[in-house]
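Exercise 7b. Backbone tokens:
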């Protein structure tokens, strides 16, 4: 009966250490897998969000800058052309009289 109790104690000890090692291994594996999955998901989500935000911001900034530059250039060119045409028309008119 004493030997049986010793075997039971040894069996329980081995089972305890086995379960403890299994728990640690499973915990480590799950932690690593979850960490990788979350890292990948967050990286992808942040990349998409930043890409979209930067694209939108750059698009707006470039649109505004180009609109302003084109407006200025066209205004200057039209002003110059109108000034020249009006001056030419005025000189013709004055030559007639």
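Sequence design result:
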């Amino acid at each position: 009966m004493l030997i049986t109790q010793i075997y039971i104690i040894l069996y329980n000890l081995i089972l305890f250490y086995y379960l403890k090692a299994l728990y640690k291994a499973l915990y480590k594996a799950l932690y690593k897998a979850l960490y990788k999955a979350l890292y990948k998901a967050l990286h992808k989500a942040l990349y998409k969000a930043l890409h979209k935000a930067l694209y939108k911001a750059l698009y707006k900034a470039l649109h505004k800058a180009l609109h302003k530059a084109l407006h200025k250039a066209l205004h200057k060119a039209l002003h110059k052309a109108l000034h020249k045409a009006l001056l030419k028309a005025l000189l013709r008119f004055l030559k007639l009289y």
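Instructor comment: The longest helix spans residues 2-96. The chain has a mean pLDDT of 95.
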